[in-house]
Amino acid sequence: MNENIEKIISSCGAKLYDFETVTENGHKIVRIYITCEEGVTLEKCEEVSKIISPIFDLDPPVSGKYFLEVSSPGIERALKLPKHFKASIGAKVNIKLNGGESLQGVIKSANDESVEIDEQVINYSDISRAKTFFEW
Q: Nearest to residue 73, comparing CAs of 115, 132, 114?
């Protein structure tokens, strides 16, 4: 995602968490996930969307017709980047490793190369998928 988009989101009092482009029911969707210290509200999503939409009209993030969605990454969020793991220290996670093994635990620490889950250090390059989870 464009560095300017991060700055624009920041000017709204939010932070870019992640983005993705997906196709659902034959429609392209550009999803932008934001976080805020005080929590993400519908009004904050609307504010960010209204500011980003005209920029994307001039410089589309994908070719062809698409829909723009701005939302919170949710309480159970995907962890893709080192900054996601660092921000989730203390959270419970489900991790699937490249070899197919799954583990569950609490993030104890994280740096730019690896994450410590309980007493096990895992390199990010060994992780195929990671997500926080909430026990209801």
A: 132
Instruction: Please state which CATH number belongs to domain 82-132.
Output: 2.30.30.100
Looking at the domain that runs over 3-71, which CATH code has it been given? 3.30.300.70
Residue with tokens 């482009």: 21
Give residue limits of the domains in the chain: 3-71, 82-132
Cα angle 97-108-79, degrees, rounded to a multiple of 5: 45
Q: Is the dihedral of CA 88, 90, 94, 99 positive or negative?
A: positive
Residue by residue, pLDDT tens for the chain (136 residues) are 567 889 999 999 999 999 999 999 999 999 999 999 889 999 999 999 999 999 999 988 899 999 999 999 988 999 999 999 999 999 999 999 999 999 999 999 999 999 999 999 999 999 999 999 988 7
